[in-house]
Amino acid sequence: MIFLTNSPHETEAVGERLGQVLPAGAVIAYRGDLGAGKTAFTRGLARGLGYGEPVTSPTYTIVNEYLGGRLPLFHFDMYRLRSSDDLWDIGWEDYLDRGGVCAVEWSENVADALEDPIMITIEKLGEDTRQITIEGGETLADFSL
Asked: How many CB atoms lie within 10 A of CB 89?
């Protein structure tokens, strides 16, 4: 599925809609350059999961937890990790076992640890224009805006 958005608000809206249909245990693997809109998408994802508080990038904390929605959201930033071994060291398996949604920025750094993720690629086509490609996830067959 491919979506074109023309503002951060529209990017968040795609994320919000996805959050409304994600099942427990879903793993989101983001691909996209710095500033592409991965965190904006995650803000919408959190809203779609029923979380109403601010969502920020986990660049310096590696993972931010958002609890209190329909499902917990664990937002990872793997930019500073060197391999999937580092991911296991921070407790990746524990997060998977908690039955929430794991959203992983810079997923290519830990790709071998992500089993059957929903791939979300966000490409900058202009200052505010983004192309969002969503691939994978059997449960998303009926997903649309």
From this structure: 10
Q: Cα dist. 108→14, 97, 134 in Å? A: 22, 22, 16
> Cα(43)–Cα(33) distance, rounded to whole angstroms?
17
- Tens of pLDDT, residues 10-19: 999 999 999 9
Predicted TM-score (pTM) of the model is 0.89
Domain 2-139 of CATH type 3.40.50.720? no
User: Which of 27, 6, 15 lies closest to 102, judged by CA?
Assistant: 27
Domain locations along the chain: 2-139
Closest alpha carbon to 72 in 128, 10, 26, 138: 26
Q: Is residue 23 within 8 Å of residue 116, measured between CB atoms? A: no
Q: Give the integer Cα–Cα distance in Å for 92 and 114.
A: 10
